[in-house]
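Aim 2 progress update. The chain analyzed this quarter is reproduced below.
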Amino acid sequence: MIDSDFQPYEVIDGDWSKGLLLVADHAGRKLPASYNSLGLPPSEFERHIAYDIGVEATTRGLAKTMNVPAVLGQFSRLLIDPNRGDDDPTLIRQLYDGTVIPGNYPMSAAERALRLEKFYRPYHRAVDAAVERVFQTNGRAPLVFSIHSFTPVMQGFVRPWHAGVLWDTDHRVAWPLIEMLAADPALCVGDNEPYDGALRGDSMYSHAITQGYAHALLEIRQDLIADQAGVDSWVERLVPILDAINARPDIHEIQHFGSRTGPVDHRKG
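Predicted structure tokens:
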């Protein structure tokens, strides 16, 4: 039985008329008590496999400083990954970066359906509601900005980027974001690195691409936001950049750019 008081998301209030919504899919690492840590020791929930290190504090810092709303995922992606399509084979992982997740194997169809119903879909309904509230309050299409973090090393490869901007085909946020971040000579900024932003059914696809809303996903290297000093530094860096992008007139227009993943079933416009 699922704990009745478990909340799969948190909505941070702010000035909804500013036209900007922050989204942090992997902010949390909580599990309902009934899942018994999925059979894993507590140390695994300190790793990136359970959540995006530093993202919760960074998102809260941006939301507070800018006075803008945000939606934070509260459950660990080891339970179910909110940044995947509901048909993605990595939606519920049984093996992640060398760790076997006992509570995810075997995975019955009933259990999969339960996790979708109790965690995944409520989170996405909350993001949908927040996006729509920004639209209705501002009267224009919202800017949806997603925040993630990535490991400095993956499978022995030392990642050189300090941050990466992920995007599909809508360049309205990605291009100026990359340009403004890269203006700092101390930063190595990835363009669709360390991941490709074209992922059908992911959070940005579901809440921005299908509606024609301007958006981008920013990946920050985890060691750079692992403590409060790092978080504060990145919040200070990002606030003027996001303000400048949010002020651009084309950002608040509905424009359909399509997707590199295939035809898009548009929900607005």
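Residues 22 and 200 are 20 Å apart (CA to CA). The longest strand covers residues 143-150. These observations will guide the mutagenesis experiments scheduled for the next reporting period.
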